[in-house]
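Reopening: Phosphatidylglycerophosphatase A still failing for me.
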Amino acid sequence: MDKKRVTSKEVTEAALRLLKERGVTVEDIAEIVYEMQSPYNKNLTMEECIESVEKVLQKREVQHAILVGIELDKLAEKKMLSEPLQTIVETDEGLFGVDETIALGAVLGYGSIAVTTFGHLDKNKIGIIKNLDTKRGKGIHTFLDDLVASIAASASGRLAHNLRDEEESLQEIS
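Support: Ran it again with your exact input. Result attached.
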């Protein structure tokens, strides 16, 4: 019996579709990245932030986190989780850290800058993260707010490392 294999293209398309269905755009995330990185890079453009978010969204680890987290949010909306998990996810209980743990796992590939940025975003709820966390509009976003913070933090870490690489290569040329 052959195992069905899911292609990278299918996973990428599913992750992007789910974000869009939940009202999150690449630009929303890029705005957070810009806010996080512009104090350290005066020449930073929104286009660079968008590109960095898009690169992060190509990583399988990030895509898997999106698929799992959003699926759990959707199941909670339909009241399809068993108790007490249903109530915990539905109310985004303060001591429930699985949402942050999944999101943090996706950040780890982008270094300590991404990890500390994730902590900052998780605590301060910037941009669309705040909208998702405060549940403006409808839906349960227990996992999604942390996933957005994870993507933004990863894209921020990626940009910070790229800036450093560019500075070093300019020094080598001089």
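The first helix runs from residue 8 to 21. If you still see a failure, please send the error message rather than a screenshot.
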